[in-house]
Design goal:
The protein is of the alpha/beta class. Helices cover 47% and strands 15% of the residues.
């Protein structure tokens, strides 16, 4: 007799949440999305379509899942994937505490490193850290496109439901690795995600930015500084993707003609891919910069260090969000501000 389908809720179903939950619904899970009315209206009318720069399209009609505006509809979930913005974590924790069953497993698939800790302050349920390495952008009503590669990572625990979740993602073509040191993985991802801010400052695609050597040189300064701050604080960020942070810094500093040759082998990026931070900027939403560059600056201050490069980027992005638009800086503009 086969096991019952896993009951999964996606709390905070924006681009990432819809993409993750859509894969799980396609693989046979019972999926309930909790999200905004705008997403519900679009998906109820058009269904859910997931595209990927390397994999086949997944198209789901609205009868294959549930999209709700009411947090109480997480009450039957075995696993809750939290995909809200980091600044909304405490509020989400209160809603989950009010409605989730006691033995539910909550996985924080959010940017930053402190979200699991914030959740545990409120929740009695098991809380796991998680990492989403790829970029997802909304491309139309009910349509979400993944423009970069990578496997999900979640904190390892001995729980058959987590293994079942891993199998469901695999069925949809999405890898999910389990790590016993998720904090190291989160810090490794945070260093890579420092690029989100640079993309918001240029206002173009990720690939357009990375093909500019001065853009990469500026990014290398920020990542190198972040790596130094974390190591001095006793944190050893894990390798993320195909290269650890130290190797990534060396790659970023390569001349253009060499970088172009290895780019597709090291970091596969769709030509249209953009960061979620740029999407947030253009849509008038709140920035997650405090959970990226801000996290580096905060750790530096806490441990008696300085992080001037990340402080400058933090300030530039905060100014962009206060004005509601990207300054559309070139790579050279950004590099000159850090020199």
């Amino acid at each position: 007799m086969s096991a019952s389908p896993l009951n999964i809720a996606v709390f905070g179903a924006g681009s990432i949440g819809c993409y993750l939950g859509g894969q799980l619904a396609y693989a046979g899970a019972h999926v309930t999305f909790i999200g905004r009315e705008r997403f519900k209206t679009d998906i109820d009318a058009n269904g859910l379509t997931l595209t990927h720069f390397e994999r086949e399209e997944i198209a789901l009609s609205p009868d294959k899942f549930t999209f709700s505006l009411d947090p109480k509809d997480i009450s039957a979930a075995d696993i809750i994937l939290l995909t809200t913005k980091s600044q909304d974590t405490a509020e989400a924790a209160n809603s989950i505490a009010a409605h989730a069953k006691d033995d539910a497993v909550i996985i924080s698939f959010q940017n930053g490193v402190r979200n699991p800790e914030i959740l545990r302050e409120t929740l009695r349920q098991t809380v796991l850290g998680g990492v989403v390495p790829f970029n997802v952008t909304g491309t139309g009503p009910g349509r979400f496109h993944c423009g970069t590669e990578g496997d999900l990572t979640a904190q390892f625990i001995e729980d058959p439901r987590v293994k079942q979740l891993q199998d469901l993602f695999a069925k949809a073509g999405q890898g999910l690795s389990l790590s016993e040191d998720i904090l190291a993985v989160q810090w490794g991802k945070l260093l890579v995600n420092l690029n989100n801010a640079f993309n918001a400052l240029t206002g173009g695609t990720l690939k357009e930015g990375l093909l500019q050597r001065d853009y990469r040189r500026a990014l290398a300064l920020a990542v190198e500084e972040g790596l130094a701050v974390t190591k001095s604080a006793g944190i050893e960020p894990a390798a993320f993707g195909k290269a650890d942070a130290a190797k990534m810094i060396k790659i970023l500093r390569l001349p253009n003609f060499i970088y172009k040759i290895i780019m597709d082998k090291i970091v596969k990026i769709d030509a249209a891919a953009r960061s979620s931070m740029l999407d947030d900027l253009e849509m008038g939403r709140v920035s997650e910069i405090d959970y990226l560059q801000g996290e580096i600056v905060r750790l530096a201050q806490k441990t008696g260090q300085t992080a001037p490069y990340n402080e400058i980027i933090l300030s530039l992005v905060q100014t962009a969000f206060s004005k509601g638009q990207s300054p559309k800086l070139s790579g050279r503009d950004i590099y000159n501000k850090l020199k």
